[in-house]
Design goal:
alpha/beta
Length: 486
């Protein structure tokens, strides 16, 4: 009976979200987002209690009521819905620092995790300083431009900038320590600053005397990428990770899109272009890129993959129906991280329901259905996920949280599997069919089976040396006993 109530409530919420999808507001303030979540997202019937990470995101920060008692009520109400506010660190901004410390103090008093978002503190390696630019054969300096204005320079001329940025981190970490406020989790979405290999970066490095000295086989894109990503990883470790963990050794710290993987990247950010001559693997209209192991150099303490429905990727699989296109691309990106991430390393995934905004002049892609998005989230959890972060536009934020929270609540029915289970299936079918994910706990499996075509009969998967029969169970989890070895 209890489970039926959860299912009915979830179905009602998904239906409401589907109706609300076309009617997005013009602009939404941070206060409206937070109060909207509290007003419209039901409290979880199964509390997080440390089993899964709370929902964090780009729109879940920067506002608290001025009265501490009311602020505590807001934080408690959000926590009841599986949501955590994150302090947004700024550079040389005393108001932002005071708000961050106040949020951390209140979260600590309530026994909630204290989290900070530090992209702004990490950003600033390439700001046009001549000392960071490429060096031409005649001794002059030059750069290339990213996102219209950022002057991208030499990966090997950033020592002074690294010292300055490390000092920023040290000042903020010291402020927390001196205030008696701990730091439990640090997130970033630092990606378009510092050394990168896309767009004009490779061609610029070929013209740079310093780059040629550091990368003898610079004509090999993979050698270039490996060198650049190693520098990038070391900058994150020395500027951020070492500083945070020296004062807060148990803190989780990670960065957007930095995680273990299989050597390929299955998505493109909106500004990224594959350089001419760089290797790729074609699959229908997709061009998947090689990807160096940046994570190994960072010292990060959680994996942070990205499973967005990037608008420009929608045409890649023209024969797939919309729901399976987005499900396939999201699960492919999530699974390559899950399969290569050690069990002891938390895995927190960036997700989004609606497609990212279309580029100017491009056709906006349709969204996957709310029900299919729920299935994607469930499969990501059964492949080792420990929680979700979300990015979205302000006017989408309440609905985005409203789509994630029920998926957490439903999964938390099976808390023991989430806490102790081992993911055992990572296959992503190349055509719409049946997708199965599972956590193994002893001789039992927690399974999610999602069918993208009519298959009203059991399917088999081989797990631990035995064949397991998995019957249809549309839209729900099922527990299956493992048969004895063959």
């Amino acid at each position: 009976m209890h489970r039926r109530i959860v299912t009915v409530a979830l179905a009602g919420l998904l239906a409401a979200l589907a109706v609300a999808q076309p009617a997005l507001a013009q602009r939404t303030t941070q206060e409206e987002i937070i109060r909207g979540i509290i007003a419209t997202v039901p409290p979880l019937q199964h509390p997080l209690d440390g089993t899964l990470q709370p929902i964090r995101g780009s729109r879940l920060d920067a506002w608290l009521p001025e009265d501490d008692a009311e602020a505590r009520e807001v934080l408690t109400a959000l926590n009841d819905r599986g949501v955590a506010l994150t302090a947004r660190w700024r550079v040389d901004n005393e108001g932002a620092r005071a708000l961050a410390l106040r949020l951390g103090r209140l979260q600590q008093e309530l026994g909630l995790p204290v989290s900070v978002h530090a992209t702004a503190v990490m950003t600033g390696f390439f700001e046009g300083d001549p000392s960071t630019l490429h060096v031409a054969d005649d001794g002059s300096t030059f750069s290339w431009h990213l996102l219209g204005s950022r002057e991208m320079g030499c990966p090997f001329r950033l020592q002074e900038r690294a010292q300055a940025i490390r000092a920023r981190w040290q000042a903020l970490v010291d402020a927390y320590r001196e205030a008696g406020v701990r730091i439990d989790l640090v997130s970033m979405d630092w990606y378009s600053d510092g050394p990168i290999e896309w767009n004009e970066a490779w061609e610029a490095s070929k013209r740079c005397t310093v780059c040629r000295e550091h990368i003898p086989d610079l004509d090999d894109f993979c050698a270039f990428q490996e060198a650049v990503r190693r520098v990038r990883g070391e900058l994150q470790r020395t500027c951020a990770v070492e500083v945070v963990r020296a004062s807060f050794p148990d803190a989780l710290i990670g960065n957007w899109a930095v995680h273990p993987h299989d050597g390929w990247r299955y998505w493109y950010d909106s500004y990224e272009e594959l350089p001419e001559g760089a290797p790729f693997r074609r699959d229908q209209l997709a061009r998947y890129r090689t990807w160096a192991d940046e994570f190994a150099w960072t010292g990060y303490t959680y994996a942070n993959p990205v499973c967005y429905p990037w608008n420009a990727m929608y045409p890649w699989y023209p024969d797939y129906p919309t729901d399976y296109r987005w499900f396939f691309l999201g699960l492919l990106s999530g699974s390559t991280c899950a399969q290569y991430t050690p069990a002891e390393l938390p895995l927190i995934t960036w997700v989004k329901w609606r497609p990212t905004p279309a580029a100017e002049g491009a056709q906006p892609a349709p969204a996957m259905s709310p029900a299919t998005y729920r299935e994607l989230l469930a499969h990501l959890l059964l492949r080792g996920g420990d929680g979700f972060m979300m990015w979205c536009r302000a006017e989408e934020a309440v609905d985005e949280v409203g789509a994630i929270a029920p998926a957490l609540d439903e999964a938390l029915t099976w808390r023991e599997f989430l806490a102790e289970g081992e993911p055992v299936l990572f296959d992503v079918p190349r055509t719409p069919g049946t997708v199965v994910s599972a956590l193994r706990l002893g001789d039992r499996l927690l399974v999610r089976r999602t069918d993208f075509e009519e298959r009203p009969y059991p399917v088999e998967r081989r797990i631990g040396g035995v064949r397991v029969s998995i019957p249809p169970a549309p839209g729900r989890y099922q527990v299956i006993d493992l048969p004895r070895g063959e």
